[in-house]
């Protein structure tokens, strides 16, 4: 029987920080977006509101433990935490720093560097840059030294054959990603004594670069982007969504066919490089972007169960440790993309996760 390690992505933006207070208003967290969401058409499920875990603050060790305990109870092996680094300045780091100090929290983890500019994309103003990402080989060195010293050394950090797994969200933004990868490996091996690193790129925004051609080990299917490719045209909206409200806002909503997206993911012919597959519970980021957002119509716990089961059944680990399946995400509440229990579905997505993994 093959042994898999299901990994759920975790967003840390469920606590206030000074930068968000300045940019978005005092006390802003992701819950601010979640609770202001409104349905834009008949039958539109908004807002997504939490039940079991409530409106938690991830600075609290009790909140982190409750989240991890819930995930583990339904078959999740570990978390992939988003990590925000801007030339030595970190944002949304308090939950991660707290987790690193919370040694009794028995939850394996890895980091994914969300290496984009920090912009107002979340409310539709992508060109308004709040924190700029500057790339340099000197920063690459400082970043990797910090990771090796403070993060990879944690006994809970997920490894492949002793090599810490590190994920890059947007590798194509680097001026010379091959040089960066080489520097990172050199520092990890020669300065900190690791056998090597296990470097992964996310297949985000349709990017499908063979990882071995840029000095990386594997790719991760970024399923939210993969599953919303099929646009529903205006004429089809009524049959899918019922009677739209007669407002310009509702008519502008970008609707995608979630079922077609899932089918295209299932039908994908595997590439010649190492690829860890991903699944997504659902998608609706109108909590962040209102009518400028994207609603993926047709998601359900049953469809998610079928997709995850198909992924589990067809995935052949590349080795004993190269056995990851990624679930995106545990708690992307403002993207309507969460395993955590909500008022409509309760624990149905968690129960589907457990069922697919057990079978």
Describe the structure.
- Strand 7 and strand 8 (163-168) form a beta hairpin.
- This protein has one domain (5-37, 48-234, 257-358): TIM Barrel (Alpha-Beta Barrel), CATH 3.20.20.80.
- The termini are close together.
- The protein has 359 residues and is of the alpha/beta class.
- It has 13 helices and 17 strands.
- The longest helix is centred in the middle third of the chain and has 15 residues, at 177-191.
CATH architectural name: Alpha-Beta Barrel
Q: Can you summarize the main beta sheet?
A: 11 strands, mixed
Helix coverage percent: 25-40%
Give the strand content. 15-25%
Q: Assign the CATH topology.
A: TIM Barrel
- What is the average of the pLDDT values? 93
**Radius of gyration, whole Å:** 20 Å
Tell me the series of helices and strands, N- to C-terminal: EHHHEEHEEEHEEHEEHHHEHEEHEHEEEH
In terms of structural class, how would the helical and strand content be classed?
Answer: alpha/beta
Give the total of domains.
1
* Low-confidence parts: 243-250
Q: So how many helices? A: 13
CATH class: Alpha Beta
What is the CATH homology-level superfamily? Glycosidases
